[in-house]
Amino acid sequence: MKQIILNQFDMNTPGHIWPGFWRHPRDRMDYLDLAYWQSVAGIAERGLIDSIFFADVFGVYDVYGQSPEAALRAGTQVPINDPTLIIPSMAAATRHLGFGVTSNLSLEPPYLLARRLSTLDHLTKGRIAWNIVTGFLASAARGVGLETIQRHDDRYEVAEEYMDVLYQLWEGSWEDDAVVKDVATGLYTRPDRVHRVDHRGRHFRVDAIALTEPSPQRTPTLYQAGASTRGRAFSARHAETILISGHTKAIVAETVRDIRRQAQAFGRDPRDPKIVLGATIIAAPTTAEARDLYEDYRGHVDARGALTILAGWTGVDFSRYGLDEPIRHIDSPAAQSTLELLTIRSPDRVWTVRDLVAFEPIAGHGPFIVGSGAAVAEELIDWAAATDIDGFNFTRLVMPESLTAIVDLVVPELQSRGAFKRAYAEGTLRRKLQGHDRLPSSHPAGRFQRRRAGAA
Amino acid sequence: MKQIILNQFDMNTPGHIWPGFWRHPRDRMDYLDLAYWQSVAGIAERGLIDSIFFADVFGVYDVYGQSPEAALRAGTQVPINDPTLIIPSMAAATRHLGFGVTSNLSLEPPYLLARRLSTLDHLTKGRIAWNIVTGFLASAARGVGLETIQRHDDRYEVAEEYMDVLYQLWEGSWEDDAVVKDVATGLYTRPDRVHRVDHRGRHFRVDAIALTEPSPQRTPTLYQAGASTRGRAFSARHAETILISGHTKAIVAETVRDIRRQAQAFGRDPRDPKIVLGATIIAAPTTAEARDLYEDYRGHVDARGALTILAGWTGVDFSRYGLDEPIRHIDSPAAQSTLELLTIRSPDRVWTVRDLVAFEPIAGHGPFIVGSGAAVAEELIDWAAATDIDGFNFTRLVMPESLTAIVDLVVPELQSRGAFKRAYAEGTLRRKLQGHDRLPSSHPAGRFQRRRAGAA
Question: What Cα–Cα distance (Å) separates residue A321 from each residue in A307, A326, A354, B192?
Fold first, then answer.
């Protein structure tokens, strides 16, 4: 049976996808504390979770009410700390758990980002994945002194060139046998095996060697979540794990077919990208208890905080509408396509603003799976079979209890059904997910890889 | 008696100030391994070391031979990994040890650096110091696509504005009582206590709130090491710990007088900046054994690797000169002033190129203190008394044995003479060093601090 991938989705901030759980009496989340993060890593590794994936955002959600006020009140992704800095200590407390992290390539030169991600790959012994984000919050642009964010399509053009620079630094600058550490001759690195990157592109110029020696994966495992047409194409070309959303099996299956078709069109094995669906899981010893837990959690969701996020995603200032207004009446042209995406696939339902944040499945959030460990496991297996996805990305809820419930109740039921590993595979995150440590030569990074005569 | 500050000086790279020790049979340095770094932190904390200070460089030394070849061969500060990423795991393994880290403000927008350093201050519970560097390697500029580095004085003008932006983000954006986490009302942050930074300067524009809540120190403890006239003035205005070099007591005493005078001219208490001298310490149970150890270490210094660094500092391509050439013959006008600084204070000695890297004191390296624990302690106390410095910054040698020797042999002798603390003070790094958690209102950051009516 296909082995399902399980990722935990998290963020270095008080409120993530569903803000408000910091008010729950059993919530122990303390994003400022390393011991907290190390304990989360330990729980995840005990459950053989493939990776914890940290979202990030470099700005505040200020579309709702045209100010950051609502986000600040609810703790909705603000304050937001740097996620890269918590990963090494979580790595020190674990041996196999992978770590995905979002870094936005719009805000800093590739030469800086390359070094930071290579350092993470070294320190985690090859357990790092980078979620490629090209940025969308106007507030981030204002933070770094840019007048406006780039047009969407331009952003992806810049991103393509940015990736080329990174691939040259990661794959082409240092050969595998560059570092020899030969005590007898005092030779640390063979200079003839280190190559200068000389890139003169439209958006970037780099004339330098990479600063880091080859890390276990060289290029970190690549995650991407672009849902637009252009973003989908970018994913299909570059990404090894693609994060998707969708709240019905039919919609998700269609998305998966499209991604695999596009990957194939780029010369990749259509099964090569691992497709992972965002999902909200609530497990308890019995399904009745799980339903009670669902109601309990639902009562702690901060609806305005959640609308703040949705306002940022769609560009619609939901503060201007009553919670019970049907959203078809919202006449912001910029937002129509996103709202269509969220709702049009349920044409027989009249959606209100409140429905969008009712702790129920909409397209942006993916399915809600609530039940006993066995019931959840069956449902996950069913989703995977029906949609051809490879796994799930679990939304952070009340921590750590919602993760502990997955580990203790759902994982054993998946294992007993043959749908989840009983031990981690050895090696890097890419080896665990794809069977090899380095990107294959068929990947866009491959043309920058150096092959010695006689090398495999 | 004055309590001496002790810092360990380190770098996330195979070869730091004295390259070549990776070849020493007892060297256990493994810069890619978190467990190694955690063990170093543990040794330092056992010895009540005030902080480990990580240098950084964002480029390669390529003046020697006009290429990175010599640096690569010796492992001289290349490969070089991001130092910020090893600090949190070292913090997780300790409780009091401080962590200084160099970040170059020339390469990224202040909005990014502000969040990263605030995150470090949170995760270390207020134990972080930032060493302000404005950059000097042309290779770094080429890495990030800049044609040339800025002129030296312009760099400091940009740095002054950059600091203003950081101070506004750190000191002025979030009030101390902004985060309330009030479960009853669901209020995480009071929006009226969070203020937008609206900075429109010559070099930077920022229109955003800080992304992080106030960290224990807000502005991290500020280190600086500028030795030029302009750099000295910048230090005297901003820095709380100033790192200096100098190989004779007379020279160091003069430097200290000048710094304290300049600090006073900026309205600061002249004793406010802690002045820390770079020094190479070799301690052993007996002075005879220490001298043997010195010869042993000296035999493992990579002379060409060390010249590579000196070439970067001075701009002189030492590959063009024989090792025994008197350096007065070197006719690079750009380098004269630095070479003067290194040597002119010993006018009766004819310096050769070899002398500059002979593992002996020159101005750029500071004193060598070799002896039994008692002898080294006496000499440190004597230096502190004669020069008015506040402490020392120990050059990394063979690791961890050279640090362990300081901790086990020198620290107890300093303690028994009343010159070194017997326990860490509680609280943040700034509290330990300066007696308070936050920058005082007299500091240049003070004008961005908000004081509520009735607040202390």
Answer: 11, 9, 10, 24
In whole angstroms, give the CA distance from residue B76 to residue B68: 10
Angle at A226 between CA A220 and CA A228, to 5 degrees: 155
pTM for the whole thing? 0.96
Task: Please give the Cα distance from A446 to A423 (Å, whole number).
Answer: 31
pLDDT of residue A190: 98
Among residues B184, B185, B209, B183, the alpha carbon closest in space to that of B195 is found at B209
Residue among B179, B361, B200 at smallest CA distance from B281: B361
Whole-angstrom Cα distance, residue B223 to residue B234? 11
For residues B296 and B293, give the distance between their C-alpha atoms in angstroms, rounded to a whole number: 5
The ipTM estimated for the assembled molecules is 0.95
- Which among A143, A168, A140 has a CA at the least distance from the CA of A155? A140
Contact at CB, A179 and B92, closer than 8 angstroms: no
The pLDDT tens digits for B207-223 are 999 999 999 999 999 99
Quote the tokens at residue A259. Answer: 């991604």
Contact by Cβ (8 Å): A102, A51: no
* pLDDT tens digits along B410-437: 999 999 999 999 999 999 999 999 999 9
Q: Is B193 on the interface with A (CB under 8 A)?
A: no
The dihedral built from the CA positions of residue A351, A353, A357 and A363, taken in this order, carries a sign that is positive
Q: Write out the two tokens for A366.
A: 């993916």
User: Smallest Cβ distance to A189: which of B58, B72, B194?
Assistant: B72
Return the percent helix, strand and coil in chain A, to nearest 5: 40, 15, 40
Per-chain mean pLDDT for chain B = 91
Identify the DSSP state of B109.
-
State both tokens at B267. Answer: 């309205």
End-to-end CA distance of chain B: give it in Å, rounded.
32
Q: Tell me the C-alpha distance between A210 and A199, whole Å.
A: 12
CATH class, range A5-174+218-446: alpha beta
- What's the residue count for chain A? 456
Say if B346 is an interface residue toward chain A (CB within 8 Å): no
Query: What was the pLDDT predicted at A456?
Result: 41
Euclidean distance between CA atoms A274 and B346, whole angstroms? 67
Whole-angstrom distance, CA of residue A294 vs CA of residue A359: 9
Q: Over the range A280-315, which residues count as b (16 or more CB within 10 Å of their CB) and which as e?
A: bbbbbeebeebeebbeebeebbbbbbbbbbbbbbbb
CB atoms A78 and B211 under 8 Å: yes
The answer, for B299 touching chain A at a CB cutoff of 8 Å, is: no
CA angle (B169, B113, B95) in 5-degree steps: 95
Please report the DSSP string for B284-307 in residue order.
ESSHHHHHHHHHHHHTT--HHHHH
Q: What count of Cα atoms within 13 Å lies in the side-chain half-sphere of residue B245? A: 19
Mean pLDDT of the region A106-113: 90
Per the CB < 8 A criterion, the answer to whether A295 and A360 are in contact is: no
**pLDDT for A42-74, tens place per residue?**
999 999 999 999 999 989 999 999 999 999 999
Nearest to A122 by CA among B296, B44, B12: B12
Phi/psi of residue A222, each to 5°? -100, 120
| DSSP 8-state class, residue A296 | H
Given B67, B88, B142, which is nearest A89 (Cβ)? B88
pLDDT tens by residue, B364-404: 678 999 999 999 999 999 999 999 999 999 999 999 999 99
Distance CA A42, CA A8 (A): 13
Q: Which of A208-212, B102-106, B360-364 has the lowest mean pLDDT?
A: B360-364
CA-closest candidate to residue A262, choices A243, A238, A282: A238
Contacts of A86 in chain B (CB under 8 A): 88, 123
